[in-house]
Amino acid sequence: MADGSELEDDVLRLLSEAWQVGRSEGEWLEGIVGAAEPILRPDMGIIAAIATASRASSSDLRIVPCARGMPDSLFGIVDELVTFSRADNQMRRNFASHAPVMTFSDFSCYARLREILESSGLRDVAVLFTGPLFGTSLAVAAGYRERRYFSPRERRLLGAAAAQLSVALDSHRIAHRRSERELALVLQPGHESIETRCVELLSLGLETKELAQAIGISFDAARKHISNSMKRHGVSTREALLERLRSGGDSSSRDDL
Question: pTM of the entire structure?
């Protein structure tokens, strides 16, 4: 896991890319707040969207109203939900059944993600699926924000959470929505592609058990993939493996940390 300064640099880069893409589409944040306001009940709050990939545009960003302590009230994507703004509760419930929503109570929140969210005071947080399997963009519904932007500190915290949210989304989606056949269609065939995925998740701070669950393989298989990657790069520890990959993957020498 990167230290504080490296993490903040990554966060600022992520936010800068997402913000610039959003601005090029026409001040997306102001548009989102304005579009959401008509359909929010008094006990609900405004939310702000954080893009998880620089390729995301305003058309990829989705937001949901979130009532405190009522995760079941997350009932859809705002730009689609406008159509239902005058619908009765039954119609909204029907819509909810077709709008996959995940809250953090649905799975074991990774330690780093929990730390980021708790330090920001954002406990009423939900993730909405918005794109195709894998490579999807996320929207974060975070607390109560009635017609105001997040502070710079909150933006940094949410940005820092974005990568962890992506991993959590993968884990949740694989565990609850994929058969082995569907997973095979997403993961490229072959030993090396799964090994690469193991190392990617390892670099995000996941333990072996967590990354095994995220990919949909056994604990022993995940451990073997990591071990094989260490051997290929000529290192004997996970820390050395991650350092080697960060430095460009040179395996000409052996690191024993």
Answer: 0.29
Q: Is 211 within a domain?
A: yes
| Strand partners of residue 19 | none
What single-letter DSSP state applies at residue 70?
Answer: B
**DSSP category for residue 104:** G
Per the CB < 8 A criterion, the answer to whether 18 and 32 are in contact is: no
What separation in angstroms does the CA of 148 have from each of 37, 81, 144, 151, 196? 12, 22, 10, 9, 41
Number of domains in the chain: 2
Helix (H) or strand (E) holding 163: helix 152-177
Per-residue pLDDT of the chain in tens (257 residues, 90 and over written 9)? 333 344 334 433 443 443 343 333 333 333 222 222 222 222 222 222 332 222 233 233 233 333 222 233 222 222 222 222 233 344 334 333 333 333 333 333 444 444 544 554 444 333 333 332 222 233 333 333 332 344 555 455 444 544 444 454 444 444 434 444 444 444 444 445 678 778 877 877 778 887 777 676 778 888 888 998 898 888 988 888 888 877 765 433 333 33
Q: Are residues 112 and 151 in the same domain?
A: yes
Identify whether residues 35 and 150 lie together within a single domain: yes
Query: Would residue 167 count as lying in a domain?
Result: no
Residue 173 lies in a domain: no
